[in-house]
TrEMBL record, chain A:
Species this protein is from: Kushneria aurantia
Membrane topology: Multi-pass membrane protein
Entries under Pfam families matching the protein: BPD_transp_1 (PF00528)
Principal location class: membrane
Top-level taxon of the source organism: Bacteria
Compartment(s) of residence: Cell membrane
Every ABC transmembrane type-1 domain range: 53-233
InterPro entries for the chain: MetI-like (IPR000515), MetI-like_sf (IPR035906)
Keyword Membrane on entry: yes
Keywords (A to Z) from UniProt: Cell membrane, Membrane, Transmembrane, Transmembrane helix, Transport
UniProt protein name: ABC transporter permease
This protein's record includes keyword Ribosomal protein: no
UniProtKB/TrEMBL annotation, chain B:
Keyword Protease listed: no
The organism of origin for this protein: Kushneria aurantia
SUPFAM superfamilies: P-loop containing nucleoside triphosphate hydrolases (SSF52540)
Coiled coil: none
Protein name per UniProt: ABC transporter ATP-binding protein
Keyword line: ATP-binding, Nucleotide-binding, Transport
SMART domains according to UniProt: AAA
Superkingdom as given in the UniProt entry: Bacteria
Family of the protein in this entry: Belongs to the ABC transporter superfamily.
PROSITE patterns, A to Z: ABC_TRANSPORTER_1 (PS00211), ABC_TRANSPORTER_2 (PS50893)
Keyword Endoplasmic reticulum assigned: no
All residue ranges annotated as the ABC transporter domain in the record: 22-245
Lineage, top ranks: Bacteria, Pseudomonadati, Pseudomonadota, Gammaproteobacteria, Oceanospirillales
GO molecular function: ATP binding
Amino acid sequence: MTRALGRLLLATAVLMVLWQLVTLAGVPRYMLPSPVAVLETLIARAELLVEHGLITLGEILAGFVCGSLLGVATALVLSRWQFLRATVLPLLLISQAIPVFAIAPLLVLWFGYGPGSKVVMATLIIYFPVASTCYDGLRQTEPGWLDLARTMGASPARRLLRVQLPAALPALASGLRMAATAAPIGAIIGEWVGSSAGLGYLMLQANGRMQTDLMFAALAVLVVMTVTLYFGVDRLCRTLMPWQPDRLREGGAAPP
Amino acid sequence: MPSSSSRQTSNNTLQDCDDGVLRIEAARLAFTEHCLFDGLSMTLPAHGWTCLLGRSGCGKSSLLRMIAGLPVAPDASLSVGNGAGQPLNLRVAWMAQQDLLLPWRRVIDNVSLGAAMRGERADRERAMALLEQVGLGHTARRYPQTLSGGERSRVALARTLYESAPLVLMDEPFAALDALTRLDLHALAHRLLAGRRVVMVTHDPLEALRMANQILVMRGTPARLDSLDVPSQPAPRDPATPAMSNNHARLLAMLDEVAA
């Protein structure tokens, strides 16, 4: 683990040095600010970045929670009442043909200039991946487990919640990890389309004023938030599934 | 047709047949193309092992599933009843070829799974006592994947015992084990399931001869059930005696022969 972290830091450092060299070669600051300049801006404008960052973070987290809950609920309902599959599932698939970006202006119109429309956007963007991975997981339960539960007199609801849902957790976990990286996209797009606060708003403003260093600083904050969210979700999933062996760590890339 | 919803009200029929034998009557399984069996019946004594043998595909596993009230194939038409002309509605303990331990439940919680499935409070003391009986008390807090195949089978046996259902249905429960582990489990299962009514489907004639109080051979199309005398020694019988080899040869011949 520490070795992997060390390698990651080394790779990042090499990239930073390359970046610095490129800017030293004479690329103007408004095109590509040097990493040192971005770092300076990060420190100098920390207050502004934190203020807008917290707004975006709130939107991302709210969207992540809403989208995940809605996705899991949809998967459970579809598994429990099979007749819904024929009607709801095609509708869901068709809805995925609509790019969320295309309806972003509409969402701003409906849910306002504030965080509401951004939360809805993030929710929409992660809803389907979560619903479909969870639903697939629910359907792929070992049939023998369901037989056993039946002979024990388990009701269909109990079979769903006590057998199928835990069995679907690994599949759901990969959906949630995917959602953790997609939720920020929804929030940022929402802020671009219409808002008066948030990192997306800040980036758009900075871009218009040629404050490219501020834009990079905002981007850096966003990256840190997304990566933290991803690893937080990953850790949470592992904690919820203590029985699940960590195959990557056990059998994966052996250290040379 | 026994449906999953009718299983909830299952306890009563057991009481009726607890005084003695349980009769399974008029079992019928047909697909659109062909009929696997029709009018099969068997008599299961109040306790003891009934072993069901037959070639692959003869329908013995389906018959077991029908008795358990489990769904068979989607296009199958099936019916099975008890002697009184009513559909079977039995509470059974089910043990399949795989151990079917739930990986997210600790060993002790797998033993008391039935309580969780019925929404009852788990009797941890009883689960623990059963786990000790199969010699795995020390693994109670572990997750199943840390156990060996033989240990997992023993946990599955403890879970089956926890059900305290008077009819235990087993579908090749020991088939995936190595020979020595299987012999151990035979002895253990025989000891712990004494006094229960057990029906075991098996592919292994020696296993049937070792364990059974009654051997039923399923053969022919549509299949019928023929019973075979079992050796007189008490089970579990030593597989290395001449009497066992004789019986083994007879049983193999019987399985091979096409029923008239």
